[in-house]
Write a structure and sequence with these properties.
It is a single chain. About 50% of the residues lie in helices and about 10% in strands. The protein is of the alpha/beta class. The protein has a single domain, classed as 5'-nuclease (Rossmann fold, 3-Layer(aba) Sandwich), CATH 3.40.50.1010. Strands 3-2-1-4-5 form a 5-stranded parallel beta sheet. Strand 4, helix 7 and strand 5 form a beta-alpha-beta unit. Helix 1 packs across helix 4. The longest helix is centred in the first third of the chain and has 15 residues.
Length: about 160
């Protein structure tokens, strides 16, 4: 049986690798992310060069810890189809023009037929106000959108 496929977006990587936070909401997200990570063998987890680039930024020690989580993961190819869909997501206001990487996360998952995109990005990706628009743009362009969810949702918590 095939494992469900999951695009592992940068915000989840950050929550797993980060030092324990005192903010109760962030701490809860960190715990949820780590619980999901403990069950990762249930999934075919994929990333992209965008995730690698974002995880490489900032403090070098923290970047190294984030990148260690990504070792040996399947990296999706950035195709012209993914670039075109990302452009459509921005032009049709599914994703703000200022956030091209977020559009790429979604488009890469959609173009490669990934079932889930796991994220903590409520501002531009897992946003109740824009999710329907994102999904419709993907469909209009001929792709099934990934189910955008948090680690909690993916675990059924």
């Amino acid at each position: 049986m095939n494992k469900p496929s999951v695009y592992f977006e940068t915000t989840v990587v950050g929550h797993i690798a980060a030092r324990q936070q005192s903010d109760i909401i962030v701490a809860a997200r960190q715990l949820s992310s780590c619980r999901w990570w403990a069950c990762r063998d249930k999934y075919r987890i994929v990333i992209s060069q965008v995730v690698i680039d974002e995880c490489s930024a900032g403090d070098s020690t923290a970047a190294t810890e984030r990148l260690e989580l990504l070792a040996d993961m399947e990296v999706l190819a950035l195709t012209s189809d993914a670039e075109s869909l990302a452009t459509e997501l921005i032009l049709r206001h599914g994703i703000p023009r200022s956030e091209p990487r977020d559009a790429l996360h979604i488009s890469l998952a959609a173009v490669h037929g990934i079932q889930f995109l796991v994220t903590w990005n409520f501002r531009h990706i897992a946003n109740a106000e824009t999710r329907a628009s994102i999904e419709q743009i993907c469909r209009d362009c001929g792709y099934n959108p990934p189910s955008i969810c948090t680690p909690d949702e993916l675990l059924g918590a």
